[in-house]
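Sync notes, pocket subgroup
Present: LS, DG
LS reminded everyone that the earlier model was apo-only. Rerun requested with NAP included. Inputs:
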Amino acid sequence: MNEKQKVVLVTGSSRGIGRGIALEMARQGYAVVVHGSADSAHLFSAYEEVAQLSPASIRVVADLFVSSSIRDMFDVVRSAFCGLDALVNNAAVQNPGSITEIKESDWDRVLSVNLKAPFLCAQQAVPLMQSRGGGKIVNISSVHATDPRRNYAHYSCAKAGLEMLTKCMALELAPYGIQANSIVVGAIGTELTPPERQAIVLPAVPAQRIGAIEEIARLVTFLCSHSCDYMTGASIAVDGGLTLGFCASRPEL
Ligand code: NAP
């Protein structure tokens, strides 16, 4: 690998939005660490597609619920590359359930994968970014960080925490030349938002359409570029106006 080639780790890039981000970063010339929770066929196909665009890319398996698995993932990154230029904390789980029914084990899993893992990944990433003179962290958040959703208390709390974690990262890591920002994602067509859910959400979206994966991926590449070196701690909504407030879901107002 060319030592000047930039390296990005995109968690949860085996499918969905993460896969789109990995492909867009590969198109921008990054060597991509393509990640999934298991050695699945979709992880392999995502990796193959990314590697065609950027041959120095690698794939790695890690269950982000397990701290030692996160450390092992970074051992692989350290041995494959001399550093890391960008970390995209994208992987997430939902495991829906009402407040009265959510099992403690599901609460722990959702909070761990969606909030604790981005923190642990950032802790591992910082020294690798320092060796490059700086870096970028992009946290993939959700409109449910601020708008509560029935049956998703754990998911909403995790995303709300991720918003604050982004600001804390921005504050503490700025002296190292590391910028951290978050993208507040609206309804995007993936397994997390299947067609039946899209049909329910659509009337509340002022833009009157569901978002495309590429619309998130292109913003990630911009946030990871030098154009955003003075931007840190920001939270950017890409939601077609879904979170604009009361009038957003009432065309008559
Ligand atoms: P998705 O299609 O369900 O993909 C989830 C990804 O996370 C997969 O790559 C999955 O890996 C990985 N993952 C799940 N549990 C994991 C674990 N324990 N360890 C390691 N990796 C794990 O999700 P998506 O819709 O693309 O969502 C991507 C991000 O956007 C998430 O942060 C989500 O909260 C956010 N978001 C999405 C929407 C939407 O409408 N889609 C809306 C708001 C926010 P495997 O393939 O191995 O399972």
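DG: Residues 12, 14-18, 36-38, 40, 42, 63-65, 90-93, 113, 140, 142, 185, 187-188, 190-193 surround NAP (CB under 6 Å).
LS: The mean pLDDT is 96.
Action: DG to write up.
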